[in-house]
Amino acid sequence: MAASTPEDVPGHELNEHRLEDLRDILSPTKLRLLQQILASPTGALSSKELAARNTISDSTIRDHLRDLHNRDKPIIAKLEPDTSPVPNGIPRVYFAVTEYGISLLKQANLYDQIGLLYDMYEAADLQLPDADNQPVTLDEIENYDHRPIPDWL
Question: What is the pLDDT of residue 12?
Fold first, then answer.
């Protein structure tokens, strides 16, 4: 029996755009953000929550997320809370990895570590950057009842 190639697996056809997307998710920062989003209990995180998990700034994280979103086939989706108004300090935009993004991670054999990351973040004592000057805590953001959850996970 011949070994299967990516072209043989539905959804894993290699074309110029997919190769570019694969190269882009191999950037250590973007890969870490994608895996952190998937390792969250809800499958969607705000840039504030990602900043609590990283040493890079909220604005740099948003730049990476914008790049992963603004593509012919988005790697991440923007989600909004299912109520309005949103309380002060609670994020108004969350990010989830799309089915296409998940397929890229699987193709690159970078999806299986998600369970380990989930366990690690559950055990960690994370804080928002500049927590003393924030109107809410990370726990309040994580436990916000109206936060969006992707329907494809």
Answer: 53
